């Protein structure tokens, strides 16, 4: 009987693998043939002719090679569909702002009609690899998490829609109320996410209040530190993609960024303490608080590192570019990594405060008969 | 005192209050992780191969994050082995995806910041994008594997006679509970770090098609999905390592008692 169950299980796995492969292939096929959905002209490269190569070096003795290439192919959508074209392209070995294109790639192009039809390359069409990766991630979530995968994915989808709405509202206020808008969003995020993870009960309300108060205190403490230090060494001008006042935007970014980690941690602590209190109702409030601190101190370190790596890794290319442009280590750090580091530290403060507050609230509010 | 130093000091004090000695070592692990990260960038700037530097740095970063956490020896060894295994799988996924999607380098959105900088530095930015994606997933992999390994370690301590296949099933159950919230940590981190970009997209009326094909967005999305895949794979990965380890220990005990 065991071997039968095992066989059934392994056959299930093969079916699952097959479904994943088919799902990913369908995703790839659909996005590889969606050219007609785009209004921008798309160009399919069928032949590449390599041109001359020039060696170049800059004032910082960086050596690079610049290549010319002639792309032949045809337009696949819109008014000029089927039209054959030749497009000149140039790329460097480092490829910071340019790309080497290959046959079978699809490119977005800009068409010029005068004096005669010609085109320049705008960018590569990237939807196929992105959708492929998304399909892979979604199917893995379903295979490993089964039905819980539905909750996880719906929580991501709902939160993304809400986030987009908040961005919309923020834009219509010209960024004047970015902190209030994203604070309200943060509260809504917490309610929805914690409801999906824990359901609507006392435990969830305890977690919710711990999360909200920890995040609020973190932001207040940060503002206090900024006030005392007069924001010395805060290079807001180095913030990327800023279209509005940078300081409030920075705080809003950190506020939303740390929220997931804080919820993760508070859920863990409150759930464990509730179980503990249920098994041993005789425990005093202080004992419950101390157990919470014990659990918290072992998870806080790894959790801070999660956000640290997310915030810091993305600064790598720009920091490198600064270093290669003859800037000092200190200047390259200040202009690229210091804001990421600040975000990591503020998040760390939020994560540590969550340990204290969720243990405190669980100690005070959870009774032995709670499930 | 600069704001950065002040915030660092505040964090250290809070960590000591909550964790005592453990608080200090958690704080130090972040400081050292930063040192290694920065040193890796310097090495890449000296033209050492980016991917090799990243892989070596990643293994060191994982070991620091995992062994300096307060997990038991058994749990941290298992978590480390599992996370290195996940790291290898992720690298195998990342490399072709990055060459396919070509998200290395900078987008049009970066133009203003790049003014006055020489872009032709002779280091492949596609490889740097691979490094970035690997590095940004490390924290998430480490955290998930520590959590699952600690949970399983607790079970083996309480039930030393548990069969390795039963332990595997338990691991999946624990993993499911952990992953639901770990995914949130990742996604909110992503929302936070790319909020400026989203506001930019909205303000400049990017269509859905523009966004999904945008280089900067695609780079961030790939990094976060890779981390997500890493976290999800950590469940079977860590559980497999732990049940394998348990089986080895049980077999050894059996043969010793048989003598």
Automatic annotation (TrEMBL), chain A:
Alphabetized Pfam families for the sequence: YibE_F
Keywords from the named record: Membrane, Transmembrane, Transmembrane helix
Family matches, as InterPro entries: YibE_F
Domain of life: Bacteria
Bilayer-crossing regions: 12-32, 128-145, 152-169, 175-198, 205-229, 303-323, 343-366
Keyword Transmembrane helix among record annotations: yes
The protein's name in its UniProt record: YibE/F-like protein
UniProtKB/TrEMBL annotation, chain B:
Keywords of the record: Membrane, Transmembrane, Transmembrane helix
InterPro entries, A to Z: UCP031503_TM (IPR014564), YibE_F (IPR012507)
Residues annotated as transmembrane: 36-67, 79-97, 117-142, 178-201, 221-242
Coiled-coil segments on the chain, per record: none
Name under which the protein is recorded: YibE/F-like protein
Organism from which the protein derives: Lentilactobacillus hilgardii (strain ATCC 8290 / DSM 20176 / CCUG 30140 / JCM 1155 / KCTC 3500 / NBRC 15886 / NCIMB 8040 / NRRL B-1843 / 9)
């Amino acid at each position: 009987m065991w071997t039968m169950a095992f066989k059934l299980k392994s056959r299930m796995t093969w079916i699952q693998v097959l479904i994943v492969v088919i799902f990913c292939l369908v995703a790839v096929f659909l996005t590889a043939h969606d050219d007609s959905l785009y209004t921008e002209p798309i160009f399919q490269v069928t032949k590449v002719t390599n041109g001359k190569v020039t060696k170049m070096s800059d004032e910082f003795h960086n050596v690079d090679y610049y290549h010319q290439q002639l792309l032949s192919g045809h337009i696949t959508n819109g008014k000029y569909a089927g039209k054959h074209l030749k497009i000149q392209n140039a790329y460097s070995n480092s490829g910071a702002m340019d790309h080497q294109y290959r046959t079978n790639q699809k490119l977005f192009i800009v068409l010029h009609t005068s004096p005669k039809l010609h085109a320049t390359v705008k960018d590569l069409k990237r939807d196929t690899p992105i959708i492929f990766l998304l399909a892979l991630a979604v199917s893995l979530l379903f295979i490993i998490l089964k039905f819980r995968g539905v909750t996880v994915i719906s929580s991501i989808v709902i939160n993304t829609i809400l986030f987009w709405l908040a961005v919309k509202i923020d834009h219509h206020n010209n960024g004047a109320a970015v902190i209030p808008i994203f604070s309200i969003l943060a509260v809504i995020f917490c309610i929805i996410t914690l409801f999906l993870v824990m359901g609507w009960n006392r435990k969830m309300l305890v977690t919710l209040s711990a999360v909200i108060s920890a995040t609020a205190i973190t932001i207040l403490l940060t503002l206090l530190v900024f006030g005392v230090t007069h924001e010395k060494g805060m290079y807001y001008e180095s913030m990327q993609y800023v279209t509005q006042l940078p300081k409030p935007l920075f705080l809003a970014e950190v506020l939303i960024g740390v929220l997931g980690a804080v919820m993760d941690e508070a859920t863990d602590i409150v759930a464990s303490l509730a179980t503990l209190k249920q098994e041993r109702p005789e425990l005093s409030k202080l004992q419950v608080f101390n157990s919470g601190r014990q659990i918290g101190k072992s998870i806080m370190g790894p959790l801070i590192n999660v956000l640290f790596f997310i915030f810091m890794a993305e600064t790598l290319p720009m920091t490198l570019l600064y270093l290669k442009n003859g800037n000092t280590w200190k200047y390259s750090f200040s202009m690229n990594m210091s804001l990421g580091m600040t975000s990591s530290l503020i998040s760390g403060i939020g994560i540590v405060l969550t340990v204290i507050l969720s243990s405190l609230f669980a100690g005070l509010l959870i009774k032995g008969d709670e499930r | 005192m600069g704001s950065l130093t002040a915030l660092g000091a505040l964090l250290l004090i809070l960590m000591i209050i909550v964790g005592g000695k453990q608080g200090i070592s958690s704080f130090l692990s972040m400081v050292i992780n930063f040192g290694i990260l920065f040193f890796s960038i310097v090495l890449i700037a000296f033209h050492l191969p980016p991917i090799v530097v990243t892989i070596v740095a990643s293994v060191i970063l994982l070991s620091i994050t995992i062994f300096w956490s307060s997990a038991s020896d058994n749990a941290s060894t298992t978590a480390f082995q599992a996370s290195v295994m996940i790291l290898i799988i992720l690298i195998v996924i990342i490399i072709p995806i990055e060459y396919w999607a070509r998200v290395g380098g900078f987008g049009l959105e970066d133009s203003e910041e790049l003014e006055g900088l020489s872009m032709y530095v002779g280091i492949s930015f596609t490889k740097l994008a691979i490094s970035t994606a690997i590095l940004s997933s490390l924290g998430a992999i480490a955290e998930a594997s520590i959590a699952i390994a600690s949970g399983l370690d607790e079970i083996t301590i309480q039930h030393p006679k548990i069969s390795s296949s039963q332990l595997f099933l338990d691991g999946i159950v624990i993993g499911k509970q952990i992953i639901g919230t770990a995914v949130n940590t990742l996604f909110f981190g992503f929302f936070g770090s790319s909020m400026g970009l989203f506001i930019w997209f909205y303000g400049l009326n990017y269509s859905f098609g523009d966004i999904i094909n945008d280089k900067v967005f695609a780079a961030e999305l790939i990094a976060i999905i890779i981390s997500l895949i890493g976290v999800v794979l950590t469940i079977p990965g860590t559980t497999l390592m732990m049940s394998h380890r348990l089986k080895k220990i049980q077999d050894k005990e059996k043969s010793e008692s048989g003598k």
